[in-house]
Amino acid sequence: QVQLVQSGAEVKRPGASVRVSCRASGYTFSTFDLNWVRQAPGQGLEWMGWMDPKRGDTASAQKFQGRLSMTTDSSINTVYMDLSNLRYEDTAVYYCARSPGTPGFFDFWGHGTMITVSS
Amino acid sequence: SFVLTQPPSVSVAPGQTATITCGGNNIGRESVHWYQQKPGQAPVLVIHYDSDRPSGIPERFSGSNSGNTATLTISRVEAGDEADYYCQVWDSTFDHAYVFGGGTTVSVL
To answer: Most buried residue among A83, A118, B79, B83 by CB atoms closer than 10 A?
Structure first.
């Protein structure tokens, strides 16, 4: 069965960077795009960016450009999301989500990773 | 950017029908997808491409999309349907990005 397993919760200082990993299993890794979606406490869903693991192509929402980096290690079916220059308002649950193509929809989601930005 | 507007909350009695709207300028021209999110859990896709149900989603969930409004309908509502529901489209006009509605909390009375 399809699984997206994410790394654990982290607490970071303002100005620091964070890396969240998402390891995929149960399907052919290269044939689906992977996206990052976040949800601040008590708030709605916010799409951050997507990656094509096969070609390495990426795109991010305008508000994250310059701070968001997405990479992949196909040897272990894992994508990484790096967010730099963290601010208090980056405190959120970060989800990876698979999409059959871009544009499209998100058919499987990771369990989420809580990132807390606190001094 | 493309804006999707959902009512913050909908209340419905068990066995009745819940209707959740998602408004957007000419949204009928876009493909709309819907997600259910229960507290503390990741979202689950319940409708894709306006009205298609993924495998495992009950037939009680249906969708439509026309004009400026997309709609998710939950028939014969059960207590387990209590959740937040989000609509989503791809903004091909402005930002070339995914956009979510603000979410609707469905409460089962």
So the answer is: A83
Does any CB of chain A come closer than 8 Å to the CB of residue B45?
A: yes
CA distance B14 to chain A (A): 26
φ, ψ for residue B16 (rounded to 5)? -90, -175
Distance, in Å, from the CA atom of A66 to the CA atom of A82, rounded to the nearest integer, reads 11
SS3 B24: coil
Do B102 and B85 meet the contact criterion of CB atoms below 8 Å apart? no
Which member of A44, A59, A105 has the closest CB to residue B48? A105
Residues A88-116: pLDDT tens digits?
999 999 999 999 988 899 999 999 999 99
Rg (CA), chain A: 13
Helix (H, G, I), strand (E, B) or coil at A35: strand
